[in-house]
TrEMBL record:
Keyword annotations: Secreted, Signal
Residues spanning the signal sequence: 1-21
Family assignment from sequence similarity: Belongs to the PBP/GOBP family.
Lineage: superkingdom: Eukaryota
Subcellular localization(s) per the UniProt record: Secreted
Chief location bin: secreted
GO cellular component, one term: extracellular region
Keyword hit for Membrane: no
Membrane-spanning segments: none
Organism: Zootermopsis nevadensis
Name under which the protein is recorded: Uncharacterized protein
GO molecular function: odorant binding
Length: 230
């Protein structure tokens, strides 16, 4: 069951494309959504995040194994400054919590509801275009302005744009998420993992964590990025 604090950080941190300062050592949107392992909902979301819905030809082979490996090991291999949450972020999230509240007061927060919460927050942060898709011209300066990311993406706008394009394409292929009477775009949830992967594989040499374990992390994430054609 989600507490308000956990829900706040889940949506705000990962949905806002910053995926840093994650509570309890969690590293991604799918990590924070604590669904029962093996459940239909968990399997469905894992397939979405792992790219299996777009790359069925890979099935449960290289792609899904790489994604699960990077998710499960909770390894940070690029030293970056900690992220601080602003008052504006908090105000936006408070508004979106109200706007995406379930009509069923007894219902626990579902994955679909959280996707809509993230979508709401990203829209209120003015990071989308007229069609509700992520807007690279808005997302790029937003990501670079976040503490912990500016120094990593100083001259790498193209990496952020690749994540924007991938998330929008992924969302278009997947379709909207329906929660009660709301239709929501999942791109804002997907881009968080993409940004995280780009941080690891494009980390400046002076910020890289040395060692065989992190070398393997970077190798496997690079394979994932190649398979997903990001």
């Amino acid at each position: 069951m989600f507490t308000m604090e956990k829900l706040f950080y889940t949506a705000l941190v990962c949905g806002f494309v910053i995926c840093s300062a994650l509570p309890n050592g969690k590293r991604s949107f799918s990590d924070l959504v604590e669904m029962e392992a093996g459940s239909e909902e968990m399997n469905s979301y894992s397939s979405l995040i792992n790219g299996e819905s777009l790359h069925n030809e890979h099935g449960d082979t290289k792609l899904s194994r790489v994604a699960r490996w990077t998710e499960q090991n909770n390894i940070e291999c690029c030293n970056r400054d900690k992220q601080k949450l602003s008052n504006k972020d908090g105000e936006i999230m408070a508004q979106c919590l109200i706007e995406t509240k379930s009509k069923n007061s007894s219902q626990e927060y579902s994955l679909k509801q959280i996707v809509c919460l993230v979508d709401c927050a990203v829209k209120k942060s003015d990071l989308v275009d007229g069609d509700g898709n992520l807007d690279a011209e808005k997302v790029i300066p937003y990501v670079k302005a976040r503490e912990g990311y500016g120094q990593l993406f100083a001259n790498k706008d193209d990496l952020i744009k690749r994540c924007v394009d991938f998330a929008n394409s992924f969302s278009k292929e997947r379709g909207e998420v329906n929660f009660e009477d709301q239709k929501c775009n999942i791109a804002s949830a997907v881009i968080g993992d993409c940004i995280k992967y780009m941080v690891e594989i494009s980390c400046p040499d002076d910020r890289k964590v040395a060692g065989e374990q992190c070398d393997n992390v970077r190798k496997r994430i690079s394979e994932l990025v190649d398979v997903l054609n990001i």
